[in-house]
Amino acid sequence: MRDRSTSATSLPTGAIGSAVPRGSRRRSGPITRWERHYRAAVVVADAAAVIGVSAAAGILGLLGVIDGLHPEIAPLLAVLALVFLPIRRAWQLQMLGADAEEYRRVVSAMFSAAVVLALLGPWLEHVDVRPWLLGVLPVMTFLALLVRYLLRQWLHWSRRHGRRMLPVVVAGGADSVRELIERTREHSHVGWRVEAACLVDSDPEAQRDGEIAGVPVIGSLDELADHVRRGGYRVVAVTPHPHWTPQVLRQLAWDLEGTSAELAVAPVLMEVAGPRVKVSGVLGMPMLRVSQPAFTGGGRVIKEIVDRVGALIGLVLAAPVILAAAIAIKLDDGGPVFYRQLRVKRDGEVFTMWKLRTMHVGADRMRSQLQNEADGPLFKIRSDPRVTRVGAVLRRFSIDELPQLFNVLGGSMSLVGPRPPLLEETLSYDPAVRRRLLVKPGLTGLWQVSGRSDLSWEDSVRLDLRYVEDWSLTLDAVILWKTVRAVLTGRGAY
User: Fold this and answer.
1) Are 129 and 208 in the same domain?
2) Are 236 and 261 in contact (CB under 8 A)?
């Protein structure tokens, strides 16, 4: 059954087509009730974080608990933050609960507020704004991001249970439609539930059963807009196919005007997204501009600094854990604590990677006697007999990877990036896969927070290439945040 919570003023589903003529610019279907409630919850949470932190800081300054914290700045800072959040579109519905862009917009809004407050500083007599800029505002930003994260986790939990989903109709070739349907089922947190399909080409199985991948095929593309009006779909997803010429897509966009649906078109550049892609007009034609991936520049310098500082802090915090694991390994079988292995880093250079030993001594010689359960060049076994009792625990919570912080500190690895491959694995890389070696290998990465060893080789490569192509400091921050959850759950680790 569809999740169709709408307001009391919304039109009945069957009346949408007749109520709004084709080409009308008035939207026939309002956003669902849960979407309005979720956006309201985000706005209230942001306001509570901004006003709460400002008020608390003002009270502390008024009581003299913190010197130099002038309480009269509290309302000014709160107003600036609450003004720039909507200006930076941090409350835009389509972006809420979607990806890292939501967090980036919150940070951008807080940064804008900081800039304005800093510019107003000289005009505020006998008031020092630096404590607010360097102390209060970072706390406010962190709290706003935290409540956003908690709300998103609740939304994703609801979607895993089939609630708060957007009804989707997908149109395109049979193979690409089937792939999109399967992906939406695997990644329910996106919030898409494909409820109908229109096929450009014929598919014998779909023609026989009247469905594709369990989704009903509802008719021809000429009637797509009418189907959307009758069905009340929120998204029309167009998958790649030669049928979709610019003229056909433009006509489809016109036909969907006045409906409740958003048109989502999958471009040919499927794995290029984010900050590299910009749409601009050239000679009166819309052009998708794709900038060069950023392998150098100021952002990379900041990444290097964060890597070294983060690795040093991580080693200090992880020292007791590493020591306890080392003692457990030694008591288990008396063998060496550390395991060194040659891996490939940026530009194909070889380096020595450090790990806590999780297998029996001489495990490398047993590899030829075992059957690989992974596809591609990776060698993975779910119940590897070479893993020790202690090693199984260390692997489940990725404790064996902690010594790689020394590699990060030394500069051969990064905190975030594609995992460093073995030399023999890289020998079978095709030119596309070799692009993984354009950046430093990482202690964690996109595939580690997306399923780890449960992923296929193709999915792992796709995620690594996405990281290489679309890297940003925000993406690194999101991956590090998600790594904590992946390690605690132990999902996909073996």
Assistant:
1) no
2) yes
